[in-house]
Amino acid sequence: MKKFGVYLHVPFCASKCAYCDFVSGVYGEDVKKAYFAALSGDITRFAERQANGRTVTSIYIGGGTPSSVDAHYLTDVLGLIGRSFVISSNCEITTEANPESLTREKAEAYARAGVNRISIGMQSASDEVLARIGRAHTSERFVRAAEIATAAVGNVSADVMLALPGQTMSDVENAVGLLSEAGMSHISVYSLKVEEGTPLQKSGYVPDEDAAADMYSLARSLLEERGYKGYEVSNFAQPGKECLHNVGYWDRSEYIGFGVSAHSFYDDTRFAVTSDLTAYLGGVRVTEKHYIPPESDEAAEETIMLALRTSRGLDLSAFRRKFGRDPIAGKESGLALLRREGLVSLTDDRLSLTPKGLYVMNEIIVRLAF
Prior knowledge:
The chain has helices at about 30-50, 70-85, 105-110, 125-130, 140-155, 170-180, 200, 210-225, 245-250, 275-280, 295-305, 315-325, 330-340, 355-360, 360-370, and strands at about 1-10, 55-65, 85-95, 115-125, 155-160, 185-190, 230, 235, 255-260, 265, 270-275, 285-290, 315, 345, 350-355. It is of the alpha/beta class. It is built from 15 helices and 15 strands. It folds into two domains: about 1-250, TIM Barrel, CATH 3.20.20; about 295-370, Arc Repressor Mutant, subunit A, CATH 1.10.10. α2 (about 70-85) packs parallel to α3 and α3 (about 105-110) packs parallel to α5. The chain is globular.
């Protein structure tokens, strides 16, 4: 039986952060009710028409801030998914949360509904930096939220951002220390990207790329010292605690996204739901759709790009079997140069990026494109 993941987008927040360009915002209860009714209808229709012969192996509730809405919205939709699909016995079910809105009551309600993983957005351990980017919590509030999540589900992840306004190397060190001491099983480390139209972009802030690289290198080394393995360019986990839902993205496995701005990859087709919440509530759904023939150059390039994000890298033998071509043929001199520069590793018929290479991943992928 084929497997697939399910993503649910919750576009609601208590306030908007200065760097955020996700489809999210502050809305009243009437909009929330209408949205979850529409979301539930989409799930029911999809299950009736297209999900035969497939098993759900992961569910991820993202946003926005899922913990900003009443818990019954999430527990109701998880109940609907459980009734609508075949769910694997070891299905990973994650919900995102922010420290200021995660309560003990909500976490316990999530756990009763089947959630077995909570991902908390910390971003920084510096209260000053948090205030500059519009976060509504302090480091102390994060610690309380981490304790609540750990008591409820045990498996807890947290996010850290790099190159934030006023952030120092010492701040990064403090963040890694705080997260490891709090018992986080999984830590994501992202460099800030200033998106067009955000308050941070309008303020004129431009991240220092050299500082961001140094912060990433420091965070990576500190995490590895503490027993976290970097299994993907931005993700580190204790043994056995990788995020299975995200691993599915990098393996090019099937997933279906429900809700405004949600993306999917299903039956060799990538498609996206409208990013306009008003249009979504008015009945508009998929606005982008693109079929990718399974043995095409596009599918092959996606496979290379996604595999090189991971510590496992690209299995060259498996690639040859699937696509009938050698992904490194004709690129020997370029690969030799990348190896001399310490950016790639080629062993046991597997191509992977070194920690140094991961930070310039996009440049390397361009060099390896067909």
